[in-house]
Amino acid sequence: MIAHETATTEKISQETKLANGVFNNSQARDIVKNLIDCQINFYKLENLKSWEACHSEENTHWMKKIDELTKKKEEFNNLIDKANKEGLEINIESILEIKLSEK
């Protein structure tokens, strides 16, 4: 993993590569599943917290994000299937970047 920090008068940012390289079919599926499922679970918890706070229906904001990520995971899996069928290599690059700036 590579991490570096950039500082300016306005903002500070840091990033790291979570996944970077060529992966086989199984590895690529695991990476996609784990990265996206982690985010989906975060949104599910936020939805539950929102529901507990006001006991109303599910928060459509969080549910929309969950639906979008579920569709994106399916698209990635279809792309992995295509690579496998056509004998192509799968190169994944996933970067986490956090930026700090004044409010």
How would you describe the overall organization of this protein?
With 103 residues, the protein is α+β, with helices and mostly antiparallel strands. Helix content is 55%, strand content 29%. Strand 1 and strand 2 form a beta hairpin.
Outline of this structure?
The protein is α+β, with helices and mostly antiparallel strands and 103 residues long. 55% of the residues lie in helices and 29% in strands.
Keywords, separated by commas or semicolons:
single chain; alpha+beta; 3-stranded antiparallel sheet; 103 residues; 55% helix
End-to-end separation in angstroms reads 30 Å
The percent range for strand residues is 25-35%
Structural class call reads: alpha+beta
Molecular shape: flat
Count the DSSP helices.
2
The order of strands across the largest sheet is 1-2-3
Helix content: 55-70%
How is the main sheet built?
A: 3 strands, antiparallel
User: Which stretches are poorly predicted, pLDDT < 50 over at least 5 residues?
Assistant: none
What does the average pLDDT come to?
88
Order of helices and strands: EEHHE
Strand tally, please? 3
Rg value: 18 Å
